[in-house]
Design goal:
Number of strands: 14
Helix content: under 10%
Largest sheet: 5 strands, antiparallel
């Protein structure tokens, strides 16, 4: 499974022959050709034990944002239960819009299908710096956003993995304000 930005949209290609070949790209998140990437700012993909797919990506749906030199993205999540052929409507992960402008995030999926997402967010900041926030997504519904760390490097994406029994582990670089 590969997720990438193709012609300005978040797309997925699937291999059924262990990576020898891949399907044509399927749009997972249609951003009207305006998706942008950058260092550590691309989409993420995870697969559960039933081969359901989850994708997260920093994207902008607000047309007015595109009038700015640097549009502020939010983190969105989509799922597919048919191997990546079709996708649900995108749901925003960060509860407070336009407060995850760096879009530095990581996502992992438990074997049972829950997605775990960690990202840098500045909602609780008056000045410089960002905090690491976390949310669990179950059946396409985003759980409460929880601040888990404050003294973090504001230019380094957090890392995240999920154990076989579904427990998330988040790593981040210490630093910042």
């Amino acid at each position: 499974y590969v997720v990438f930005i193709n012609e300005g949209n978040i797309c997925v290609s699937v291999s059924k022959d262990k990576g020898v070949s891949f399907s044509a790209p399927v749009i997972a998140i249609d951003v009207k050709g305006r998706a942008q990437g950058g260092m550590q700012r691309g989409p993420r993909i995870g697969v559960d034990a039933q081969k359901n797919l989850t994708v997260t990506a920093p994207v902008v749906f607000d047309d007015a944002e595109y009038e700015k030199k640097y549009p502020t993205a939010d983190l969105y999540l989509v799922t597919s239960t048919d191997g990546g052929q079709t996708w649900c409507e995108p749901v925003r992960v960060n509860e407070v819009p336009k407060k995850a402008p760096e879009s530095l995030h990581w996502m992992g999926v438990a074997p049972t299908g829950e997605a775990h997402v960690a990202w840098l967010d500045l909602r609780s900041r008056q000045g410089q710096g960002q905090d690491v926030y976390y949310a669990k997504v179950t059946d396409g519904k985003v759980g409460e956003n929880i601040k888990i760390a404050s003294t973090v490097c504001e230019c380094c994406a957090p890392g995240l993995t999920v154990s076989r029994d579904g427990n998330p582990f988040v790593a981040f670089r210490e630093g910042g304000q």
